[in-house]
Design brief:
With 318 residues, the protein is mainly beta. Helices cover 13% and strands 42% of the residues. It contains 5 helices and 19 strands. α1 crosses α4.
């Protein structure tokens, strides 16, 4: 049985406030250092249930918050197999009757059969998952060939860690970001996070949303099955991971914060999927001269830290 109960420790911290115009200016300035063409603006949220976004609800507005469940210390050096979460409790942790959850985590190995990447995309209600459009990306244990598949209705679990943007899933005002032709060394998400940190060094801010890599290719990783050998460094983690190159269009679900705010947060995490069977953990685009991004983001109002590991480290957080 998953360890998740309503008695798990849930810590909360309100994000600091920032004027939307200042956020837009900060993102535009930072992204312009990294991309040839940049546009950042506030717009009405489009219907994100439509392709290529394909979310479980139409919007990402209404009490937007970020959620960090478990953490990398549950995965490395050695996995803690008893850390297994039932996400039907999400509404209780957030005191939110219904909403949308999107983000990146570790898949339910008891169902999948092996360790996997979870691309979380589901509508939740009070004590239930109402509509799941989540994917997992795994490696075939015999061939190591990547496999991306949807999770069936009723499979509501994840293992060891998960980072989410949650909201009531409503339409509203969002930040639209468009970038083309990368000229700098940072990936799309790290560039936005660094831009926010530079502009607001004394503020704790978090953003989440969905973006599409419309042109070009991207480097992803997919976790193999759990390592039986302790992974004690970033180099050992990198050697364990399976890296792949995926083609556009790729739909990416992403969260990032400007600092860990003494809550042992993962400061950025992005997983992606496609309609043609590719997906995994996003690292960066590999075709900078042709890449094109389009994304929609919201500022979080509250950070929820669920089941923070009692022992921690900084290994394997890339």
């Amino acid at each position: 049985m998953p360890i998740t109960t309503n008695n798990l420790k849930v810590e909360t911290k309100d994000f600091d406030k920032a004027q939307i115009d200042e956020v837009i200016n900060a993102l535009h300035a930072g992204l312009s250092d990294n991309f040839e063409t940049v546009s950042v603006s506030q717009v009405n949220c489009p219907d994100l249930t439509q392709e290529p976004f394909s979310l479980a609800k139409e919007g990402i507005c209404g009490r937007p918050c970020l959620v960090d469940i478990g953490g990398v210390p549950n995965l490395v050096p050695l996995v803690k197999r008893d850390v297994y979460y039932d996400l039907s409790h999400l509404s209780n942790w957030l005191d939110m009757k219904e909403g949308l959850a999107i983000g990146a985590g570790a898949g339910p190995w008891k169902y999948v059969g092996v360790n996997s990447e979870l691309i979380a995309n589901f509508a939740f209600g009070s004590g239930t998952i109402e509509k799941s459009m989540s994917y997992i990306a795994k490696l075939d244990p015999e061939t190591e060939k990547p496999i991306v598949e949807t999770l069936p209705p009723g499979e509501n679990n994840c293992a060891v860690l998960l980072n989410l943007l949650c909201s009531e899933g409503k339409p509203g005002k969002v930040i639209k970001v468009e970038c083309k032709n990368r000229k700098g060394g940072l990936n799309f998400v790290s560039c936005m996070r660094n831009a926010m940190w530079k502009r607001f060094p004394c503020k704790f801010l978090g953003l989440g949303g969905v973006f599409v890599i419309k042109k070009g290719k991207a480097k992803l990783h997919i976790m193999p099955d759990f390592s039986e050998k302790p992974l004690n460094s970033d180099e050992e983690v990198a050697s364990w991971l399976k890296f792949v190159e995926a083609s556009s269009p790729l739909t990416c679900l992403s969260v990032f914060v400007t600092s860990d705010a003494d809550m042992d947060l993962r400061v950025e995490h992005t997983h992606c999927f496609s309609s043609y069977g590719e997906g995994g953990h996003y690292h960066y685009d590999t075709t900078p001269e042709e890449v094109a991004y389009e994304g929609y983001f919201v500022l979080g109002e509250t950070m929820y830290r669920v089941d923070r590991p009692t022992e921690t480290h900084q290994i394997g957080r890339d």
